[in-house]
């Protein structure tokens, strides 16, 4: 079990690291490839859009070829695409290769979660998922600092070459330890459903990201993809089919519905704050990229230290109560940033970031783990895909919302703008507390029903 878990971590870490690692080098890439800022931005955007497109396919592909084979193929494609990105001679080829890289990354995390869920069962799922959570949470956190260190002494190509040794080791271990999974008879791919969600999800993510950049919904580059994205997602949700691309009937289970939707709101507060913290150090405190990355290490350390405990607590007491405590702690550790100014001591900031890392460990993983534990083994591919989609959407909306608040108030003073933005993060964490209360109550009701069902039997 632990061997499989540690191997799966390789794929999760490298895919999540890349979401923030390359962003640091966009300026260097644009200069070297003689590309404009608008062109080079697509190096980051293409990755995220392709990731969103491939996510809905994970469940269907996992059943068709075996989820272990899918994971190995996605990891291999990601690694090869990384090497080719370093060889790209112009920005057009680099963007195209980033599409391949992003599509592979979109399959790695949910496929890995499915492998673990099917291998260990619900009783130990929390402890195992907490190991995967270390990679998922630490990757984006350390990406800027790793990227800054690499660019300090090496060329931008090393932002991609760094993936090669990780990929080779991970694939070699995966070939030895990862179970290939069972091939199942699957219906034809729901092409109409894939077209709707394959258009709607990336359009929506792109639109809210642009909203955060432009700070207005009136811009056509925001409004048009936003309308198309919402229309596609709504049409997919309303569509009725015997064998849909994603089985939305899972949401009939109260525990699954509460846990999966809680993940979306937790994702909004978590990823939204991860966008603000680097800007906080760079704009308000004048730190460079490397210093900013090093300043955020305490956040990742707090998360990594407590995640194993978080998994054990989830298995023992249920994810609802653990996630509730984690979100309450998130509120407590975010609220001070709404009052702190530019002259706050570095020690105070590091203590708060460390404590917020503890809160993240106690909130994000338990909610997702509870969703996976609420479904049957054969439903795990759909569950992992849906939870990842909700986390992505929640993170995109949270990041865009907080970026808009910050951008609109920066002209009036950076200190006031950041304080106001952190009030919004605190509010998002309060909403997440409300949703995890629902999860806690749903879990308690489900436990109360089980003895009655046993007696009736």
Write a concise synopsis of the structure shown.
By secondary structure, the protein is an all-alpha fold. Helix content is 81%, strand content 0%. It is found in: Cell membrane.
What attributes does this structure have?
457 residues, mainly alpha, Growth Hormone, Chain: A, disordered C terminus, membrane, transmembrane helix, MFS, transport
What is the fold's blueprint, element by element?
Blueprint: H1 2-21, H2 26-32, H3 37-54, H4 58-65, H5 67-87, H6 91-120, H7 125-153, H8 158-161, H9 163-177, H10 191-214, H11 220-238, H12 254-284, H13 289-295, H14 297-317, H15 319-334, H16 346-373, H17 380-409, H18 414-456
Helix pairs in contact: 1-6, 1-7, 1-9, 2-3, 3-6, 3-10, 4-5, 4-17, 5-6, 5-9, 6-7, 6-17, 7-13, 7-14, 7-16, 10-11, 10-17, 12-16, 12-17, 12-18, 14-15, 14-16, 15-16, 15-18, 17-18
Structural class: mainly alpha
CATH architecture of the largest domain: Up-down Bundle
- Classify the fold: give the CATH topology of the largest domain: Growth Hormone, Chain: A
CATH class placement of the largest domain: Mainly Alpha
Our count of domains comes out at: 3
Order of helices and strands: HHHHHHHHHHHHHHHHHH
Explain this structure:
- Helix content is 81%, strand content 0%.
- With 457 residues, the protein is mainly α.
- It is globular, with a radius of gyration of 21 Å.
- The protein starts with a helix and ends with a helix.
- InterPro entries: EmrB-like, MFS, MFS_dom, MFS_trans_sf.
- Keywords: Cell membrane, Membrane, Transmembrane, Transmembrane helix, Transport.
- It is a multi-pass membrane protein.
